[in-house]
UniProtKB/TrEMBL annotation, chains A, B:
Protein name, UniProt field: Uncharacterized protein
Bias (Polar residues): 399-418
GO MF term (any one): DNA-binding transcription factor activity, RNA polymerase II-specific
Domain of life of the source: Eukaryota
GO BP term, pick one: cellular response to iron ion starvation
Segments traversing the membrane: none
Region of interest (Disordered), residue spans: 47-93, 399-421
InterPro entries (UniProt xref): AFT
Alphabetized Pfam families for the sequence: AFT
Length: 575, 575
DNA sequence: TAATGGGTGCACT
DNA sequence: AAGTGCACCCATT
């Protein structure tokens, strides 16, 4: 449609004006492998000594199977259903997750693995090539392409080589740990890995609030059990003041939502509750009725996790990254207590410490970086933390209350739009030159380094709330000072490995093949003003496009209209 | 209020013009105890020999506890949750159900029990007195009163001494089997008992269709496990063409509903699906949202089972005994297959046979006594089996679709209405004289004999559909001819035992103490025209009141207005 | 677990 | 009609 045509234009422009190779070279020069090896090994040894449970998990698991990379779920019933489900799940659908590891050596642990990997570079290279060849792994055809594409996407937007090193390290790790037969299980070290990815995700989400479109979470660890997905998400969303609950789950698909507020939580409900009017016009086909829900259970926020057989990985997508209520970290919540118990059973001391600090802050009424998220109705409402007013005309059209959840990308619109733009994006656009981008400042660099969100259109926005960000940075600093810094800094060096992959693969796909072009929109470009720049819109590069569209100026709709990226009317998310 | 005042009037009149004692005497003369004893014993021996499974269940159960009277749930997972739940339920709330049986003799079985009871009349008398004194059983204070009250209620309405014998027998059995320490467990014989009550309930429900008010199911067996409630209800409702599903469950409360229709079942959906209009005005307090429901899941039919601590029994109430869809017995349903598997595991051959016959009929497209139940909207629709047209103006006011289910009696209105009428009913009205009532015909007598429904106002309506009833009778005959007749006929004699109870207790309470007076209404008196009588309304006796209000005349609302029992407008069932 | 959306059984809180 | 957390489903493409 019009929208896609515009996107094609934009992407074409971006691709012709960027160059990724310079960054690659920089990364290679920045680190050497001995450094990486030593620091990681040290980190692993540190953790494997301070808790007995990890070895317990090893022995229990290694008898039957090698969990690819997920937390083990033994003895960690997340919910009351978990035992039941484990019995079934592992006999039916979840077998596939563990079946690939039948050949692993039960005696090896994560430390041995690290030794193997980092003391022998050629071995690592072999592992990387394994995916590249994609012969032995039947379904992996697109995996390396996608990984590279995601890297490039982030690179385009965040323009920081240090960030790139982070991302590369993640991609390498993700490839090595979950799928390779040499990988072994070690709860402790898996926790470290998971926690690392967790913090990356948190950082990204914090800077992507109030998005009305899909946000793909990259750097999702591999999970042994589908319940571990929730634990991981809890690690991410509890610190953001969001308590998640499963809305629907499957062997291969889980949908999370905000846990329903109780009546006593009424304080946190946004004031301007919509009076339900004309509920009938909810859906085109009538006859649908709604399950009974309380007025406190209207939040449109959703997380969708689905297991991708091709990648053998869980894909996590955030939908409607805004809330109809205030966000609050509540350490007294029963679910939170259970969550912490689970952490204890898993022996994830790192995360426990982190949440202890969070609890401390919450007790002291210190800010926990939780700000008010406006209702998706788009009616003018202050974002209290920043004093920013959301433009009433943009975020969404005023809509009936019962359609408070944005519809997922629809099949109909998919078929409407032929794959033209997708083809252009994925095949017809060689990315031989990606413009090297300059970093802004140290703190910004750090922020960008943690960037891991893949926007559907691979266009990233810089949402630089110094308030929230500095807070987050401080918090991170605390964590680092309590002994968690080494992993990040050392693993970071891994990105240079990525640079050794064949350039063809890097260039052949800038975009996630699983992405739906129809999910693309630029709505959020204008949702979150920042103090960085004021200015007119320029379409010269993704960098400029993103940064300049972020403006403290409240008259954002004007910029929007200038852009004319798509028809607002025909692309309403609400029906 | 006005309604209750009218009720008081009516009840007072009824009570003053009825006499229960004559019936009592008749019953006493009809049978002698040797007859009872011999036939029951014979019956029991017959069944305990033809299946090995029953003994298996005996041994398994008797080691730990004596199930009061419910089906054992060992190895009978009704749903996928059942195993999980059994583990929990029996450790927590459901302990209450089994705790009372700790002192039972594990060696005795149901046959021994029958021997004890019927070979020694004074012993039986003792058992009856135990409840009467209600000293040893802390919570049983009202139980004998209630039992007597229910008997009287039915007596008033059904006017058949043979029916009374049935009822008495049931009450006696219920007292003996579940609560007395001498009761023993025997799956086979418990099945017999359950099945007997099942058929009673089926019979009653068949004649009480299209009721817009609550229907109390009497003669509910005692259940060992809350899951057994569903099994029992399935025995009742599958033959009626209703597949039930749990809507919500608790330790002490379970709500069942019609299993949602699938899309392929669209044929059975009633045609005039309401177009949802103005869904907003659903409830007085707004802000409620409905869980997503398909258009095929709108049936208002509900069954509410709640465990009464006082009686140590499950109370079963049917709400909205009508459906928004056609009823059809579907032997291919997955749930039905599971149900039958459960029956097999329980060794309930009797029920299995019955359902085999049902399946046979269904295969042959023979009528299975399933008729179309009109939508509760009250719009004119044919009841296909009888060619009866439901008056459009009575059943309910036209209403928005999403309030398709009648609201339960509300607590608020409870407190509004002081207990005046209840006091009148339960204390101030001696029932020294209950009018002896004449029976109509043999077939009718049989029908009445199976009557076990307690209407909320203790006013029974004679709904005499000869079509449905004869069909049912024939079906019953088939069942009896396949070896199920003896229990009923022999146990019937037990009613004379009931007559030996102290008259004071019988007289002191005509009404169920657990009943909510606010649940009372007479709506259904006029819902089901019958061919029995045509005529004007008379208020001279309960008998006349009931019978004369049943009219084939479609102009029922006229009679209703003459009666002026309550304000139609202020007592709408739908909001 | 093809991908992806949604209904609903049913017990927990 | 407690509301809802969660999972077993089904439907469509
Ligand atoms: Zn929310
Ligand atoms: Zn129904």
């Amino acid at each position: 449609m019009d929208k896609n045509a515009r996107l094609d234009e934009i992407f074409a422009y971006i691709l012709n004006n960027t160059n990724v190779e310079n960054d690659m070279h920089n990364l290679q020069e920045a680190h050497d492998f001995n450094e990486i090896h030593n620091s990681i090994e040290e980190k692993c040894n540190t953790f494997s000594n301070d808790d007995q449970k990890s070895s317990t998990f090893i022995s229990e698991n290694s008898n039957n199977k090698r969990p690819s990379n997920g937390d083990t779920s033994i003895g960690t019933p997340t919910t009351k259903y978990s035992n039941t489900i484990n019995d079934k799940g592992q006999n039916s659908g979840m077998e596939r997750l563990t079946g690939i590891s039948e050949f692993s050596d039960p005696a090896t642990n994560i430390n041995d693995f690290y030794h193997q990997v980092f003391s022998n570079f050629s071995h690592l290279q072999h592992l990387a090539d394994r995916d590249t060849k994609n012969i032995s792994q039947g379904n992996d055809f697109f995996q390396p392409l996608e990984d590279t594409a995601q890297v490039n996407q982030n690179q385009l937007v965040n323009s920081s080589s240090i960030m790139q090193s982070k991302l590369f390290e993640e991609n390498i790790l993700k490839e090595l740990l979950p799928s390779s037969p040499q990988a072994t299980d070690n709860t402790k070290n898996n926790s470290n890995y998971h926690n690392h990815l967790t913090e990356i995700a948190i950082e990204s989400l914090k800077r992507q609030r109030n998005q009305s479109k899909l946000i793909h979470l990259d750097s999702v660890p591999d999970f042994q059990d589908s319940k571990d997905v929730k634990i991981w998400l809890q690690k991410i969303f509890y610190p953001l003041g969001i308590e998640i609950a499963i809305e629907r789950s499957d062997k291969s698909k889980i949908t999370y939502k905000c846990k329903a507020l109780k009546k006593k939580d009424e304080v946190y409900q946004n004031n301007h509750v919509h009076t339900p009017v004309n509920e009938a016009k909810d859906s085109g086909e009538m006859g649908k009725k709604k399950r009974v829900k309380s007025q406190y259970n209207t939040c449109p926020f959703r997380i969708r996790a689905s297991y991708k057989i091709k990648r053998k990985k869980w894909e996590v997508v955030i939908l409607n990254n805004f809330h109809s209520h205030q966000l609050k970290f509540n350490p007294d919540s029963l679910n939170y207590k259970q969550f912490k118990d689970t952490l204890r059973e898993m022996g994830d001391i790192e995360t426990i410490k982190k949440f202890d600090e969070l609890e401390y802050k919450a007790q002291k009424n210190l800010p926990v970086d939780v700000d008010t998220i406006p209702c998706e109705c788009g009616l003018t409402e202050e974002v209290q933390s920043f004093g920013v007013v959301i433009p009433s005309s943009f975020n969404c059209q005023s809509k009936p209350q019962n359609s408070s959840v944005k519809k997922f990308a629809q099949k109909k619109s998919n078929s409407e739009n032929p794959k033209l733009s997708k083809e252009v994006l994925t095949k017809n656009l060689p990315i031989s030159k990606v413009k090297k981008q300059s970093s802004k400042s140290v703190s910004t660099i750090h922020s960008n380094a943690l960037e891991n969100l893949t926007r559907d259109s691979s266009i990233e926005k810089e949402s630089n709330n110094s308030n929230a960000f500095e807070e987050w940075e401080n918090e991170n600093q605390v964590l680092l000072s309590s002994g968690h810094g080494t992993v990040e800094s050392s693993i970071m060096g891994l990105n240079s490995l990525q640079a050794n992959r064949s350039p063809e693969i890097k260039a052949s796909s800038m975009f996630d093949f699983n992405m739906d072009i129809n999910e693309v929109d630029f709505t959020d470009l204008f949702l979150k003003p920042s103090k960085k720049m004021d200015g007119h819109v320029a379409k010269t590069s993704s960098e400029n496009l993103v940064e300049e569209s972020i403006s403290k100026n409240n008259d954002i709709t004007k910029d929007l209209n200038d852009l004319k990226l798509f028809d607002l009317g025909s692309n309403g998310h609400y029906m």
